Amino acid sequence: MPDARRPPTPPLPDAGPFRPSFWRSPLRGPWLASFLSAALFPLIVVCSVTGLLSHAAYEPGLGNNALFDEGVDLYFFSWPVRPAWLYAVTQGLHIVTGLAAVPILLAKLWAVIPQLFERPAVRSFAHAVERLSLALLVGGSLFLFATGILNIQLWYPFGFSFVPAHYYAAFVFMAALTFHIVSRVATARRAFRERGVLRPLRDDLEHTEPEPALEGLHTTAPVSAAPPTMSRRLLLGTVGAASAGLGLMGLGQVAGGPFRKLALLAPRGDGPGSGPNAFQVNKTFASVGIPKADVGDGWRLLISSDGGLRRALSRADLLGMDQVSADLPIACVEGWSTTQRWTGVPIAALARMAGADPGAEVEVRSLQASGVLRRATLNSAQAGDPRSLLALKVNGADLSLDHGFPARLIVPALPGVHNTKWVGELAFGSPA
């Protein structure tokens, strides 16, 4: 009589990967899967937390800052301006840990892949829920890491917007991961208790034995193991070296300086400018379609406030005001950052000129005719910080067109895409 507790499932073929004897690697088993999970867990935690912080740094509740219509938000604070390198560090960690996690994730998928073909496919309702969570975990992880790496490369072959898809997929992944950890932590503890956390790493190839199954549990331990061709120590050493190598490549574009040569995966080199302007750039002047006449001698910065005051300032007017210089980083969502010395007029000084409070929020508008990032709104702390500048020069030289000439925004700890280039207008509102 069929078991009423078991959901009806179609029969699976007794061939290929559906046969337990198909998976013969003696390295697979609960210890290897648990060890890889333990190595992957801290990287996933850091990558997830910094990803949520990156979303919060955009201040999506302000003005036109939201990159999409959010349905779920987990930010409960205004993004600070100190330390100035905050976003560079958090987003750098996001990229470095994400890249470093890829080899470990692939090794973990290899270690547990027999479970995707196990028979029966569903043993009970609880097992069905576990299988569903596993599908969401595997699918979510592959989606997140694949789209994240493509975003680093500035390549978008998919037909959807990266930011909302990556954001919502992260919630699916984190929910599935939490369920997976809760359901598997007992298995990991038992595997480490019976075999030790590091003891299997002492075995060379000659002493590498198939991992035994854990009594009473369905595991990936082989039922008919083949002779080993490598030790677990060599396998994990190879995975660790690949993880460290990818992490260093990511670190190269985060840290910059002499490490920049390590950033083999970074699609951007030095900017098209020369001398003081020869540093990285994502969006060039030619790519945004601004007529050159709009940034010529006739360019004027419009400043306005809620009180109705409007003024138009030429670049010469701005250069005639008190200039402030500050060493500030530009840090972009793709993980790269660069610190330069910027010179310009404090946003707070322009607020006073417009008749607004120095702590007033301000919407910064670019000369770009279109694009979701052509406007950005600063919170009170950002607008009032003395280091928040309408920059006119960088490293002592006029900005190049690619770096935002005739004027650009530069604010400590602000995501790079909100450091608006080719600024045409500052609209000051009421103090927050």
Structural features, described:
With 432 residues, this protein is of the alpha+beta class. It is 38% helix and 13% strand. The strands form 2 sheets. A 5-stranded mixed sheet has the order 2-1-10-5-6. Strands 3, 4, 7, 8 and 9 form a 5-stranded antiparallel sheet that branches. The longest helix is centred in the middle third of the chain and has 34 residues. It is elongated. The termini are far apart.
List keywords for this structure.
five-stranded mixed β-sheet, 38% helix, 2 domains, five-stranded antiparallel β-sheet, 432 residues, alpha+beta, Sulfite Oxidase, Chain A, domain 2
Short synopsis of the structure:
The chain has 432 residues and is α+β, with helices and mostly antiparallel strands. The protein has nine helices and ten strands.
How far apart lie the N and C ends? 70 Å
Number of strands: 10
Computed Rg:
27 Å
How much of the residues is beta strand, in percent? 5-15%
Q: Low-confidence parts lasting 5 or more residues at pLDDT below 50?
A: none
Mean pLDDT over the full residue set: 87
Question: What letter string, H or E per element, gives the SSE order?
Answer: HHHHHHEEHEEHEEHEEEE
- Given helix and strand content, the structural type is alpha+beta
| Domain unit count | 2
Biggest β-sheet description = 5 strands, mixed
Net shape:
elongated
Helix percentage range: 25-40%
Q: Output the strand order for the largest sheet.
A: 2-1-10-5-6
Number of helices: 9
